[in-house]
Amino acid sequence: xxxxxxxxxxPPKELVEQVESRPYDVLESEEARAEAGDNExxxxxxxxxxxDFPVGTSEYDPRVYEQAAKNFQKFQDKGWLxxxxxxxxxxxxxxxxxxxxxxxxxxxWVEDYMAGRIKKHELTRRDKEEDRMKHVRVNNANIExxxxxxxxxAVLDALLxxxxxxxxxxxxxxPIDGFRHQFWVVSDEADIQLITEEFAKMPTMxxxxxxxxxxxxxxxxxEKAKLNPHHTGTEEYNYFMxxxxxxxxxxxxxxxxxxxxxxxxxxxxxxxxxxxxxEVKNITVPEDNVQCSMFNVQCYKPKHLxxxxxxxxxxxxxxxxxPGTYDDTDPIGVLDxxxxxxxxxxxxxxxxxxxxxxxxxxxxxxxxxxxLKRRVDSGEMxxxxxxxxxxxxxxxxxxxxxxxxxxxxxxxxxxLRSGLVIHKxx
Length: 426
Fold this sequence. Notes:
six-stranded antiparallel β-sheet, globular, alpha+beta, 13 helices, 2 domains
């Protein structure tokens, strides 16, 4: 892997908590408008600039992209974002539930992405790629990082631990997620060389989160190379900003499903149909349940791979896939997202395309089982299906095999905060 340090653009220490934000794609426009409030220094004015227009303005309006560039320049003019004087790496740590993961912020090489050495496990949609490409083009910068995983590396781990024992440049608790975020600057030349050399030994890295941002950043870099008659390969646009974590440190949470109807079946008929491929158990024993809210509401959480929980008509059920319904030797066929898609959503409920069907929605991350229960109890949804989380090893195995995971298979938490550092393409 080829990586390089870069002259990051970032907020002064005393402003970081006013500037930083959630990523653009985890909240709607009106949520961003509410979170930004009257804070003119919020990064939402750059990554969700539709909030500067009347309610209802499309985030894809050409004026919105132009506003992003104006605001980015304004932030620099006012000193809310300041470019570092020398090329350096950065370390970004996140702490969730007393577990900390340490990421190295690097310039990743466009050619590594284009050649498939930076591996993906999800399909991307061209319209979403184009949206992010417009944002990169108009700002001439990677405003938000992408999220990579790399095979565990003892040398880099030792370096990260050494920096972790020092005072960070930034250190704050984000108000929305309640997680701790810390940030160090790696300016020592020997450490910079060490990081570059260790990444150079790696044959591959993996996109954990941010497939559209990765594609957009790499495609804009390649586009700039083609348009430059004096292209040498050393230009800054040949690199895009990524935060790279050791794979073993990452937490992949369950990504669950809620469905609006039973495809014409009664609950009894649906439960009966499930028994063809699943062992179905009505959960009534207290020790089988977990507390899933502060109000001591009991829910059933999947216990292991190929075990699912179903919530229907106020009742939790355990579903365990029968032997022969999946292929342990197939990196895709063994996945619970594939088993549930094939044998429940498609075969029984007639939901063929998870990307386009209006009958299904997805609940990921920290919302938990109580959110599944709430959406069914409210009458909005008819049933909920909870899955055992995919492992990071499964994700890497699939990426290595060149295959693509089913949609909505992974939910990484905590999410990267945006605005801690920005990478200019010039």
